[in-house]
Write a structure and sequence with these properties.
Elements (H helix, E strand, L loop, with lengths): L1 E3 L7 E3 L1 H7 L5 H16 L5 E3 L2 E4 L4 H17 L7 E4 L18 H13 L10 H4 L8 E3 L2 H9 L10 H10 L1 E3 L10 E8 L5 H14 L3 E5 L6 H14 L6 E2 L9 E10 L1 H7 L12 E4 L6 H14 L6 E6 L1 H6 L1 H10 L2 E5 L14 E4 L2 H11 L2 E4 L2 H5 L1
Helix pairs in contact: 2-7, 3-4, 6-9, 8-9, 9-14
Bound molecules: FE3-S4 cluster (F3S).
Length: 398
């Protein structure tokens, strides 16, 4: 084994195979990609590289990466960069079904060039923030995922190991098959310090509120103790919200997060209730009345969630108080072609595919948006400066 040295940085041990790649025997693109992974790993104090089983590339929306991002991806693709592990892609900035009245398709051409470059590198055209729906990770499995909600699900729900990688690092890890052994890849870094006892049953809005509150108030890795086993859709909302307002990538949920994927080292205990959360966020909660748009599907809806929501919408269609927008992965769209045609005829329900309002641009500015997603609430206000309120799905549709 050889060592890479760089001034004061941690020495990293490389296998002969990794040395071979660095020496350019598998092409200069792969060598350069690995060099970046090694350098970042050294800066983070990693002792070695580890093999990954799945990379998820975020930061592919043209509205976010612009021309420099497109050129970076095209250059990699033109120079023969290719994934060496299963690799999925995050949502784009366009409605891939091309039917949206809400999403601006102004960057259609540019986004399609981004997609072309990704697909040339053999990245799967999944265009969703639910990579775990396509390939659920196993406990202890190493991943290189971008997209904060997916990272939090991988670590907290599946017990897999990934840091919150940026899109470029996840892509370089996908090309090399390696990531640095640092942060949440190491069991000793998965140390739970705070126990949060939540006293009420979780539903969609309380999951979002609890997530927002944790992101804003807790710095270290928490464990949540809930009175009943939560539904997966509520876990998604909670983790996505906490990852939006804070830097959380792992939140242990007692009796749900796989055992032995974290270390319990609790030195602080907090109790919080639904009442506390509603009091804290009272100005942000929808009080009823009309809304110009209700957004459901941040994170994207799974096939099961989408199916149950459209069944509910069928019953309540005549009572809706505004337009409903649902965002889904392309895979779910392909599973519900017939239902989507029916919904499109109704005009009041819109389904957008392979995108979401946060990473896209709007054709018009809705007055009041309601959503059950703490993450959408946070980013639609922060990035798009919109008036957004939180409400449960039952209140929105009921
Ligand atoms: Fe997914 Fe967009 Fe929300 S990428 S997590 S639906 S902000």
């Amino acid at each position: 084994m050889d060592q890479v040295q760089d001034g004061e940085a941690q020495l990293m041990y490389l296998t002969p195979e990794q040395e071979r790649i660095l020496g350019g025997e598998e092409g200069w693109v792969k060598a350069k990609a690995l060099k970046v992974i090694v350098k970042v790993g050294e800066a983070l104090g990693a002792d070695k590289l580890i093999m990954i089983r799945h990379a998820h590339v975020s930061g592919i929306s043209y509205t976010n990466i612009g021309e420099p991002g497109l050129k970076f991806l095209e250059e990699l693709a033109e120079n023969g960069a290719e994934t060496t592990v299963y690799t999925t892609s995050n949502p784009t900035c366009i409605d891939l079904a091309g039917k949206s009245t809400l999403i601006d398709q102004g960057y259609l051409e540019q986004q399609l060039l981004v997609n072309k470059a990704l697909e040339k590198m053999k990245i799967k055209p999944t265009y969703t923030c639910l990579p775990y729906m396509l390939r659920p990770p196993s406990p202890h499995e190493h991943l290189a995922w971008g997209e904060s909600n997916a990272v939090a699900m991988a670590n907290s729900f599946y017990g897999a190991r990934t840091n919150r990688e940026g899109g470029p690092i996840a892509l370089l890890a996908s090309i090399t098959g390696y990531i640095y052994n640092a942060g949440l890849h190491r069991l000793e870094e998965r140390r739970v310090k705070t126990l949060i006892k939540y006293e009420d049953k979780l539903d969609d809005i309380t999951a979002s509120l609890l997530g927002l509150w944790i992101g804003e108030n807790i710095d270290e890795i928490p464990m949540i103790d809930l009175p009943t086993t939560p539904r997966i859709q509520d876990v998604k909302l909670l983790l996505a919200s906490a990852a939006a307002t804070g830097s959380h990538a792992l939140i242990v949920i007692k009796d749900l997060t796989p055992r032995k994927t974290y270390i319990e080292d609790i030195d602080d205990k907090i109790t919080i209730s639904k009442r506390d959360l509603f009091r804290t966020y009272k100005d942000n909660i929808w009080k009823g009345g009309k809304y110009s748009l209700a957004y459901i599907g941040c994170p994207h809806l799974s096939a099961t969630e989408f199916h149950s929501i459209i069944k509910l919408l069928e019953k309540k269609r005549d009572k809706l108080r505004g337009k409903i927008v649902l965002s889904i992965p392309p895979l779910v769209s392909s599973m519900f072609q017939r239902e989507l045609e029916v919904l499109r005829d109704k005009n009041i329900i819109e389904v957008i595919t392979g995108t979401c309002p946060v990473v896209a641009q709007f054709k018009y500015r809705p007055d009041i948006i309601v959503t059950n997603s703490g993450k959408a609430f946070f980013y639609l206000r922060k990035l798009h400066r919109l008036d957004v309120r939180l409400a449960s799905l039952n209140n929105i549709i009921g």
